């Protein structure tokens, strides 16, 4: 496994199928920070979700590994029914112990690099309304509220949009 070989440097790479449990653990640590009453138990089998994302031929799951430990994670693909030039960032997490250390910025840059290589023009995501830290991070990376999907009363998520090419595509 990679942690046996990498001991000090930070590496961004594709997540391996054998690392699904590490992805679940990182996802849970990050989500716990914006659910002060605890992560809602909605019956989702997160191990199955991550295994599926990692196995998808039409998607990407990238991770940041440092000192043999997964500390950042991003999952993206073109959502069903969306134009081919659109990509959705389904998951983006940084281990809370590594916030404000450049991990998120480096992981986001790697995502954008992949999106450009894949010919994507627009990226979309939804972020939990109570996750102000993530909202500020995304704004700092150039994400804006999605004008095609304004929030409705009682929504738990905000839709954001990012212009991959650097030009407005509205």
Describe the secondary-structure layout.
Blueprint: E1 10-14, H1 20-31, H2 46-55, E2 59-66, E3 69-77, E4 86-94, H3 103-117, E5 122-128, H4 132-141, E6 144-145, E7 157-163
Parallel strand pairs: 4-5
Antiparallel strand pairs: 1-2, 2-3, 3-4, 5-7, 6-7
Helix pairs in contact: 1-2
| Rounded Rg | 16 Å
Low-confidence stretches: 1-7
Note the gap between the termini.
44 Å
What share of the residues does DSSP label as strand, in percent? 25-35%
N-to-C order of helices and strands: EHHEEEHEHEE
Indicate the structural class: alpha+beta
Q: Order of strands across the widest beta sheet?
A: 1-2-3-4-5-7-6
Total number of beta strands: 7
Average pLDDT confidence is 89
User: Could you describe the largest sheet, including whether it forms a barrel?
Assistant: 7 strands, mixed
Provide a count of the helices: 4
Shape: globular
Short summary:
The protein has four helices and seven strands; from the N terminus they run βααβββαβαββ. By secondary structure, it is α+β, with helices and mostly antiparallel strands.
Please explain how this structure is put together.
The protein has 170 residues and is an alpha+beta fold. A 7-stranded mixed sheet has the order 1-2-3-4-5-7-6, with helices on both faces. A hairpin with an 8-residue loop joins strand 3 and strand 4. Helix 1 packs across helix 2.
């Amino acid at each position: 496994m990679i942690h046996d070989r990498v001991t000090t440097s930070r590496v961004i790479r594709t997540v391996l199928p054998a690392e699904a449990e590490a992805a679940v653990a990182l996802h849970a640590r990050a989500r716990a920070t914006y659910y002060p009453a605890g992560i809602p138990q909605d019956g989702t089998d997160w191990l199955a979700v991550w295994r599926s994302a990692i196995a998808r031929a039409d998607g990407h799951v990238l991770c940041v590994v440092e000192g043999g430990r997964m500390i950042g994670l991003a999952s993206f693909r073109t959502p069903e029914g969306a134009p081919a030039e659109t990509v959705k960032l389904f998951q983006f997490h940084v281990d809370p112990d590594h916030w404000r250390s450049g991990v998120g910025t480096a992981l986001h840059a790697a995502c954008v690099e992949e999106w450009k290589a894949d010919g994507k023009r627009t990226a979309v995501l939804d972020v939990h309304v109570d996750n102000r830290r993530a909202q500020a991070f995304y704004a700092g990376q150039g994400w804006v509220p999605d004008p095609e999907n304004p929030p409705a009363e009682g929504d738990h998520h905000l839709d954001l949009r990012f212009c991959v090419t650097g030009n407005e595509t509205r």
